[in-house]
């Protein structure tokens, strides 16, 4: 019996040495995720400011130039995973703001989960939850619009503590 107790104590001590689970996901990948059903690709084009992302301190502009035929030329800052320069073609892949890049945004599907009626602020992310961000036409973003975008991220399973300005 004594050996069993010591063995259990040893196992418990070793368990404390196990690496922390990965915190790379910003959202619960089992949670449902949606995209903006009334997405207007032409209105989305233009210059956006990254006002919140899963990369602390990643901020800057993204320029989305709509080509009128199903895609954008996107440049600026990429805050998907790590801050890095962004220069890529992003194409519509489905209804409701579902997009794909070749190499930008970690090459993952891009979901425009929400954009306000006047295209002043948008919440973007990916089903895997490896990245998410809020874009605004102005920086700082209007507080009420920022609050609404954060609520959309929360609704789609994002951990808001990991998506910061």
Spatial separation of the terminal alpha carbons: 55 Å
The CATH topology label is Lipocalin
Per DSSP, the total helix count is: 3
| Helix amount | 10-25%
Largest sheet: 8 strands, antiparallel, barrel
- Number of discrete domains: 1
Multimer state: single chain
What do you see in this structure?
The chain is of the alpha+beta class. Helices cover 19% and strands 33% of the residues. The protein has three helices and eight strands, in the order H-H-E-E-E-E-E-E-E-E-H. An eight-stranded antiparallel β-barrel has the order 1-2-3-4-5-6-7-8. It is globular and about 35 Å long. Residues 1-23 have low confidence and may be disordered.
Can you summarize this structure?
The chain has 165 residues and is of the alpha+beta class. The chain contains three helices and eight strands; from the N terminus they run ααββββββββα. Strands 1-2-3-4-5-6-7-8 form an eight-stranded antiparallel barrel.
Question: Which properties best describe this structure?
Answer:
165 residues; alpha+beta; Lipocalin; 8-stranded antiparallel β-barrel; 3 helices; 8 strands; 19% helix; 33% strand
Write the topology of this structure.
Elements: H1 2-15, H2 41-44, E1 46-53, E2 60-66, E3 71-78, E4 84-94, E5 98-101, E6 109-115, E7 121-125, E8 132-136, H3 143-155
Antiparallel strand pairs: 1-2, 1-8, 2-3, 3-4, 4-5, 5-6, 6-7, 7-8
